[in-house]
Amino acid sequence: DIDGMNAAVDEIIAFGGKAVAHKADVTKEQEVSDAVSRCAQLFGSIDYAHNNAAVIISKSTVNCTEEIWDKTINTNLKGYWLCMKYEILQMQKQGHGSIVNTSSISGLIGRAGDMPYNVSKSGIIGLTKTAALENADKNIRINCVCPGAIQTKDWNDRVIKKLGSLHPMNRVGQPEEVANAVMWLCSDNSSFVTGHSLVIDGGRIAGEW
Fold it and tell me: Given this model, what pLDDT does residue 99 score?
């Protein structure tokens, strides 16, 4: 979404920040490497990284095709590994950094009919924990967020009400609420937090209610 990226860049610059848009396929190692290198060259370092690419194709275990499996795992898991690989290499060079990956409550609980997505989001949690342990003594922290239903511009009032009813807080989450959690995990306010999966779901998976 080049238009969306450019709009985000314009907004950041309008608030006095620095930003560039760079299109890359996270499933292609060279494109990921080039994107990370360009970022480091333009800004001098990569202090924080938020990996957030995802595809959602709802299929059960027996109805999922190899094509759907590969597309989901390649984007949602392989893509995260490739991004983390080159982000971590850069952060090791500079001696610091913080990475936040977007998983989901679907990575923590099962959900019938969403097998490939659930598997990919569970994998992100495992990847996050492993990389966090490997880099804990290198001043690099790695965590993930696990959102519940977060409102998008495509949802109508009926969808918002239906999904909201699944949460004890009786509403869906807002993108800003996830962004605030990501910013906290990136910041020094969470300096003793690594390998953590932060659930942002209005209490949905806390238990029966």
Answer: 99
Is residue 208 over pLDDT 90? no
b/e map of 156-173 (b: 16 or more CB within 10 Å)? eeeeeeebbeebeeeebb
| HEC per residue, the chain | CHHHHHHHHHHHHHCCCCCCCCCCCCCCHHHHHHHHHHHHHHHCCCCEEEECCCCCCCCCCCCCCHHHHHHHHHHHHHHHHHHHHHHHHHHHHHCCEEEEEECCHHHCCCCCCCHHHHHHHHHHHHHHHHHHHHHHHHCEEEEEEEECCECCCCCCHHHHHHHHCCCCCCCCECHHHHHHHHHHHHCHHHCCCCCCEEEECCCCCCCCC
Residues with active-site annotation: 117
Please report, for residues 13, 77, 135, 147, the alpha-carbon distance to residue 108 in angstroms, rounded to integers and kept in the order given.
Answer: 37, 15, 23, 11
State the total domains in the chain.
1
CB count in 10 Å sphere of residue 41: 8
pLDDT tens-digit map of 171-201: 999 999 999 999 999 999 999 999 999 999 9
In a domain, 162, yes or no: yes
User: pTM of the entire structure?
Assistant: 0.94
Range of the domain at 176: 48-200
Over the stretch 86-95, which tens digit does the pLDDT of each residue have?
A: 999 999 999 9
8 domain residue, yes or no: no
